[in-house]
Amino acid sequence: MLLLRHGATALLAALALLSLGVPASTAAPGPGVLVVSYEPGETEADQAEQQFLEQNEVLESAAAHANALIGLPRDVSLTALSCGEENAFWDPETETIAFCYELAGAYRSLFTELNTEGSEAERSRAVDDDVIGISNSVVFHELAHALITLYDLPITGREEDAADQLTTLMLAGDSLHQEYAVSAIEAWGALALASERGDVAPDPADEHSLDAQRYYNAICWLYGSDPNAYQGVVATGDNPDGVLPESRATRCPAEFEQIDQAWGTLLEPYLKTA
Ligand SMILES: [Zn+2]
Prior knowledge:
The protein has helices at residues 10-21, 44-55, 58-69, 101-114, 120-150, 159-171, 175-197, 211-225, 246-249, 252-267; strands at 34-38, 76-81, 88-91, 96-100, 234-235, 244-245. The chain is α/β, with parallel strands linked by helices. It has two domains: 31-120, no CATH class; 154-198 and 208-268, no CATH class. The strands form two sheets. A four-stranded mixed β-sheet has the order 1-2-4-3. A hairpin with a 4-residue loop joins strand 3 (88-91) and strand 4.
């Protein structure tokens, strides 16, 4: 079972700052929470993912992290199920976040290709950890869509980018979730490489930013959340293995601060700060 540390998050830190200058809002965190359920997987592969997610309480842990921080106006289902496609999505009609077993399976394949070092047991453990990490990231991304609908939050720019930004905030506050963020970054990096190689054609019409952009954004924002801790990701003359160009890196702490302040302001009435 995973142990979640509900330490002060970046969001809460932002809230503490905001509360100094912002008049008290009449809105309050709603009584609702994310409620996890697992529907029976419809294929053997889906059943294997179902068993993995249930045994490791993956969605339960993600839900607990979110529920400790944010109040929803009413309960929202976070349902794992066979969808017939590799996907996760927020359905505003049924007010449900769907997490497809096929998506976990697709990420498992991806991470199996990426984790090639160590014994078989070590590789298998690393893949499991990465699937847990990206699954958390996916839940927080979909939670952002849910919050935008349920609280009618005003978003400028692409909602998909805003959802990725909330995901970073949910992950940047403690070391366990920071590792989850790294799993997501590795996945975007691998997907970006696949489209660079021509394995998968990038789709500029897609509502999401391109995988390469999501990759660099996620690195930038995580680095920006704690530049000292993540100094090693910045490419410099002394650190040619760094992946984040210095020209972007210099902007990242301010980017993170802006994201933190924006989401902190939007969610301020709905945060459980007690
Ligand atoms: Zn999305």
